[in-house]
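Lab notebook page, bench 4
Experiment: in silico fold of construct C2
Operator: M.H.
Input chain length: 189 residues
Purpose: comparison with the prior construct
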Amino acid sequence: MATKPALQRWTYDEYARLPDDGNRCEIIAGELCVSPSPRPNHQAVLVPLILAMGPFIREHRLGTLYPGPVDLLFAATDYLVPDLAFVRTEREGIVSSRGIEGAPDLVVEILSPSTARRDRGLKRERYASFGVPLYWILDLDRRRVEVFRLAHDPHGSAEVVTETLEWRPVPGGPSLSISVPSIMGTTAR
C-alpha cells in the first residue's frame, strides 16, 4: 500500500526569506512553486478589474481589495499569492502586517501559460479546503471568467461568464455588474 509523502512545513520566516528575484514564490500543499512575474497582458486585465470593483466597494463600504502580490497565509503548508483578493469589512481582522491570515471572501487568478494548470487544479483545491467561498479565474485566451462557488460546491464545475459578471460581495447587499469584454479589452494574447 502506497503512502503519501509528508507535507513540507514552512515557517513564515522561512517563506519570507525566499529570494526577491522577480519570480512569484508560493508554498502549495507543502511544495515550493516558483512562477515568473506576470506578463504585461496579465497586468493590463488586472487594472480595469480593480477600477471596476474599487469604486463600488468604497461607495458601499464593503471591504478592501488587495491586488497581488499579497500573501494568503493559510497554514505552514500553504502560503499562496493570488492576483487579487477581497476581504469584507467585518472580516478585516484576518489582515495582518504579514498578509491575509485566513480565507478572503473572493480570490481572483489571471491565467498565464505557466500557471493555468495549477490555478485550475491545485490552487482551486487549496482555496476550497481553506474556506475561500468564491474563486474567479480570468482566462485571457478564451476571454471569459470562470466562477467557482467553492462554499456551495467545492468540487463543482465553473460557471463560465463571457458577457456580464454579477458580483454580490455581501449577502443581501448591493450587486455589481462587470462587463467581461470591457475588462478583457484589447489585450494582446
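Observations: The two ends are 46 Å apart (CA to CA). Residues 40-59 form the longest helix (20 residues).
Next step: discuss at group meeting.
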